[in-house]
Amino acid sequence: MSIKVGGTFSRSGGIVSAIGKQLKLINLKAVQRITVTFDPFQENAVPTREFLQHLSSPRTVQSNPSCLLKSEVVCDRRSPSIVFQLTPTAQAEAKLKKIEFNSANLSTLELLQLCNKHVSSLAPKEIVSSGLKTKSEKKAGGTKRR
């Protein structure tokens, strides 16, 4: 009997590496404010709290330092939710004022994937500069001074 080929040359790094990969892709430039609401006594609030911890990491905050991160701890048996309020330019592009995730039955990895899919995709594209020019390239491409 032979063993079936799985189709990959290497194994997955696991859930921790998948979360790390999604964290590298997060871009909050299209977001003005993030509000995370959860009830700490519910068992399905753990992934939402972990997502909040990942959003408050220095690398994620560095993508948009002017983005406000607010956490609301409630005690009324509400399901956890995450609300992203968009900047005016992103609102015009997406025709939405806010994006809301009901995170009751989602894992931390799924929350990060949804954030990258719906929020990071609205971030303005960075303009790539042409690079540095040497003095000879500047002289060849520029006008002569007299």
At a glance:
The chain is of the alpha+beta class. Helix content is 36%, strand content 17%. It has a domain at 30-124: Glutaredoxin.
Q: Name the overall outline.
A: globular
Q: What is the succession of H and E elements?
A: HEHHEEHEHH
Beta-strand residue fraction: 15-25%
Q: Can you give the mean pLDDT?
A: 87
Could you estimate the helical fraction of the residues in percent? Answer: 25-40%
Number of helices: 6
Radius of gyration: 22 Å
Q: What's the β-strand tally?
A: 4
- What is the CATH first-level class name of the domain at 30-124? Alpha Beta
CATH superfamily of the domain at 30-124: Glutaredoxin
The CATH architecture of the domain at 30-124 comes to 3-Layer(aba) Sandwich
The major beta sheet can be summarized as: 4 strands, mixed
What are the segments in which pLDDT stays under 50 over at least 5 consecutive residues?
none
- Class computed from helices, strands and strand pairing: alpha+beta
**Largest beta sheet: strand ordering:** 2-1-3-4
End-to-end C-alpha gap: 85 Å
At CATH level 3, the topology of the domain at 30-124 is: Glutaredoxin
GO cellular component, one term: mitochondrial large ribosomal subunit
InterPro entries: mtLSU_mL53, Ribosomal_mL53
Subcellular location: Mitochondrion
Protein name: Large ribosomal subunit protein mL53
